[in-house]
Amino acid sequence: MKDTQIYNLVKKEEKRQKEGIELIPSENYASSEVRKVLSSYFVNKYSEGYPKKRYYGGNENVDTLEILVQERAKKLFKVPYVNVQPYSGSPANLAVYLATCKPGDTVSGQALVAGGHLTHGHFVSATGIFYKTVQYGLIKNDIYSGRVKDLFDYDQLKKIARDYKPRLIWVGATAYPLVINFEKFAEIADSIGAYLAADISHVAGLVIAGVHKSPVQYAHIVTTTTHKTLRGPRGAMIMVTNKGLKKDPELPKKIDMAVFPGLQGGPHDNTTAAIGVALNEAGHPGFKKYGTQIVKNSKALAKTLIKGGIDLVGAGSENHLLLASLTKQLGPGGGIFAQKALDLAGLTLNKNTVPDEPMSPFYPSGIRLGTPASTTRGMREKEMEFIGKQILKVVELIRNYRLPEKKEERKKYISSFQEVMEKNKDIKKIKEEVKRFALRFPIP
């Protein structure tokens, strides 16, 4: 029996993705082979436990599958252990806390407003509720100048390490456009005997492609999602490195116990299978070319935006991501206007806090954008110039809008802005241009 309501929504979403340009750096297009396996018969199976140690029968094929996927991940990332069962990145990271800390232990991670992730100890996350967190940020000066190619405030982190002795330190970001120097974080963590966990969810595909440093030599634990630059399904993995095994030979067992039964029930075997397909694709030579082109495209897009007067954190990009401050153009909190207007123009990205954010995470002053999805569609430097110019056009169209200072006025003002933009002829014209452009580049 066909569910026309759901099917129609699927078709609408397919149309939206084909006719627009996806610029959210944490999104990508999984291949048709990945999607095929995601809806395979593995979706029907319950497999609580681990290979050869299941609570249910009928898992002989699941056991073979999970071991195969583990081996593929170990080979690609050059690690001795991997758990492929986490449902997504957040529970994977929480499992690291369960495996290495006790509730109330002190941990440290990059602050959300400085480009970090909720699960690196932000106060609204379970990781900030059940653990004592002291977070580090970025340097205060030269954020946009390009003169500094490493923006982390290592002096601040050293002081945190010295004064608070965190048991676990996180490195890895969701909004950081430069290559991360994992070795510097390792030096600080090692100086106090802390675990160092590297969350490479954003750059995992770039690490495999060889265009971003790998943390495996420096961290004890590495976590990653599987759907961003890795171009797989929405899942996650936790890896223990040789350095991690040396620190605690029981660490793999502790990770396994944290994932199941600590946090989850049975794994999603269909997702495990799809991760395996994605890892196989990432092992082919073409994937290295793909990762290299992602970075080339980011640099090209950055060049166009900077030429148009946009301030970029780090004055550009060294990975897949750009973080732009629109304070000059739209004032504090202007990111929300940019996101909404660009969305209506068929250019999907997200509002985002910027270093020394003058407003708040709810009304941030910047936008975050990236090139993994557009690169998957075959777009190159020339196409990035087109995309950058359309973004500049939209930002110019909304220059007169400002977030009200009074909080009670903001909701109504933003709603009114949305209504005006939906009728704006220039926005509609840009959307048509974007649509014609996008349809030249099919999605998988």
Automatic annotation (TrEMBL):
Keyword Amino-acid biosynthesis carried by entry: yes
Cellular-component GO terms for this entry: cytoplasm
InterPro entries for this protein: PyrdxlP-dep_Trfase, PyrdxlP-dep_Trfase_major, PyrdxlP-dep_Trfase_small, Ser_HO-MeTrfase, Ser_HO-MeTrfase-like, Ser_HO-MeTrfase_PLP_BS, SHMT-like_dom
All residue ranges annotated as the Serine hydroxymethyltransferase-like domain in the record: 2-390
Positions carrying N6-(pyridoxal phosphate)lysine: 228
Residues annotated for (6S)-5,6,7,8-tetrahydrofolate binding in this entry: 112, 116-118, 360-362
Pathway: One-carbon metabolism; tetrahydrofolate interconversion; Amino-acid biosynthesis; glycine biosynthesis; glycine from L-serine: step 1/1
UniProt site (Plays an important role in substrate specificity): 227
Catalyzed reaction equations: (6R)-5,10-methylene-5,6,7,8-tetrahydrofolate + glycine + H2O = (6S)-5,6,7,8-tetrahydrofolate + L-serine
Principal EC category: transferase
GO molecular function annotations of the record: glycine hydroxymethyltransferase activity; methyltransferase activity; pyridoxal phosphate binding
Subcellular location field: Cytoplasm
Acetylation keyword on record: no
One GO biological process term: methylation
Needed cofactors: pyridoxal 5'-phosphate
Major localization listed first in the record, in broad terms: cytoplasm
Description of how the protein assembles with itself and partners: Homodimer.
Its job: Catalyzes the reversible interconversion of serine and glycine with tetrahydrofolate (THF) serving as the one-carbon carrier. This reaction serves as the major source of one-carbon groups required for the biosynthesis of purines, thymidylate, methionine, and other important biomolecules. Also exhibits THF-independent aldolase activity toward beta-hydroxyamino acids, producing glycine and aldehydes, via a retro-aldol mechanism.
UniProt family annotation: Belongs to the SHMT family.
Protein name in UniProt: Serine hydroxymethyltransferase
Gene name, Swiss-Prot/TrEMBL: glyA
